[in-house]
Specification:
The structure is a homodimer of 302-residue chains. Chain A has 302 residues and is an alpha/beta fold. The first copy, chain A, is 36% helix and 24% strand. Chain A contains ten helices and 14 strands. In chain A, the strands form two sheets. In chain A, strands 1, 4, 5, 6, 9, 10, 11, 12, 13 and 14 form a ten-stranded mixed β-sheet that branches. In chain A, strands 3-2-7-8 form a four-stranded mixed β-sheet. In chain A, helix 1 (28-36) runs parallel beside helix 8 (234-249) and helix 9 (254-271) packs across helix 10 (285-299). The interface between A and B is medium-sized, with 30 and 30 residues.
Amino acid sequence: MGLLVVGSIALDDIETPVNKVENVLGGSSTYITLAASYFTSKIELIGVVGNDFSKEHIKILEDHNIGLTGLQIKTDGKTFHYGCKYGEDCNNRETIFTDLNVFENFDPIIPEDFRKSSFVLLGNIAPELQLNVLSQLESPKLVVCDTMNLWINIAKKALIETIKKVDVLVVNDSEAKQLSETDNIFSAAKALQAMGPRIVIIKKGEHGAILFMEDDIFCVPAYPLESIVDPTGAGDTFVGGFTGYLHKTKDLSFNNLKRAVVYGTVMASFSVQNFSTVGIENLEQSEIAKRYNEFIIMTQFD
Amino acid sequence: MGLLVVGSIALDDIETPVNKVENVLGGSSTYITLAASYFTSKIELIGVVGNDFSKEHIKILEDHNIGLTGLQIKTDGKTFHYGCKYGEDCNNRETIFTDLNVFENFDPIIPEDFRKSSFVLLGNIAPELQLNVLSQLESPKLVVCDTMNLWINIAKKALIETIKKVDVLVVNDSEAKQLSETDNIFSAAKALQAMGPRIVIIKKGEHGAILFMEDDIFCVPAYPLESIVDPTGAGDTFVGGFTGYLHKTKDLSFNNLKRAVVYGTVMASFSVQNFSTVGIENLEQSEIAKRYNEFIIMTQFD
């Protein structure tokens, strides 16, 4: 079975200190599926778009062999439209507008054929929708779940219900602290693991990521970049690369999860070097392999 | 020849959100020499103390086989006294007072026997004093230099002169940005390398450290700790462990510098678990080896 991905699909307006783009491809599942497509060819995307979602955008997904059977195209509405602006060092993001449009009434229907999917990635959407998806599935082998501070603020109860049912929870450091109500990320990870997921990944942006699997810890730095063009979707790209690699290898050992975290980090590094999904649209396998090998030099000692 | 260490020796008053201590052993060279003593037995400390520096403090240094031939004891004055207070998460330090006392007129005289030292560690003191020390030495093989934001603010010209003459510069991330006038640590490291030192180490506190050697980069995370008792001296302890290991092994290859960075990180992790130098006063070699091995699990993949 393929890798089942559920998440948002959006058109984004993004402003950084040096540039501004409008109506570019965005949304959690877009970054996720593109990143995963470099590792595994069987990906099924469950999402919704409106009548303004262009053929060119569809083609980008199709060119990456992303299955669109589960993509709902609503001709009576517009695609989820999101606008944000970044501060000087690209660390602070301000949401300018959030027009949910067709996403407001998104009902994630999993086609019959995909209900037995064994690898499922719940991209960053409302936890109620994530629970809805899980209820349609027959005993998946690995459920990876991403989320964000918005849901901790407005839907914490549903989020905690979701977390109970997932194998891997991916959050950033401030979300981990907020959700666990602790001020130390190692304490936070333990508290989150106690809430359900055997595996927790805490993303730290420019400081890399930490994988927690039972009592084991694996730390990976971010790829060294002297400038960031657009951080939008970096976390989604990370989780897409991570899960895509696991889906390809079907190996859930700690050592293979380490490799998956490094591949996720490599993919995120490409994503932030350009606006929207441009940085992960036309990669060569050799470019990915090159950065993976740079991580070996950058982190390995004997 | 032994490892020559020049730096401050102080009595500290330290207040954290949970506790307060007064007149405890402090100063850059104190942490440095104690940390280095776990790796190499030939260490010579150049520093100055006053008439209030107790026999117990001298004994701590002697018990670690730290050579005190170069220690000046001024009977007509008091030891450098420093007071600071930490904020809620121990990330923010406020200096409460700085009584230089006998340190104000410190003239670092290198005893004749040590002028041919091949490994020299210039702890965090005024860059003019660091230059003074260097002028007394005969072609050292490796000069490691630590500094702090204070000297960037008030003695930048002398600091730049010092940096020109050292092999390894150790700074934290904000100091690296300030000194290089860039806002990205990878650009900052390149700029600092262009100022002289072949090797630059950027300390990132809870996010670990990055070693830059010519075009190569090595990243190491911090040791995972769920609480920090006292961060004072963590950076000094890091550089002490790092240089002590290099002095022991006499191997300046990139791979051995990686190991040295890991040992520095291990030593810093012990330091912050107790007030003052208490965390690095009575360690067993097996405890250091255990944490080093934990770093292997935490960072190595294949």
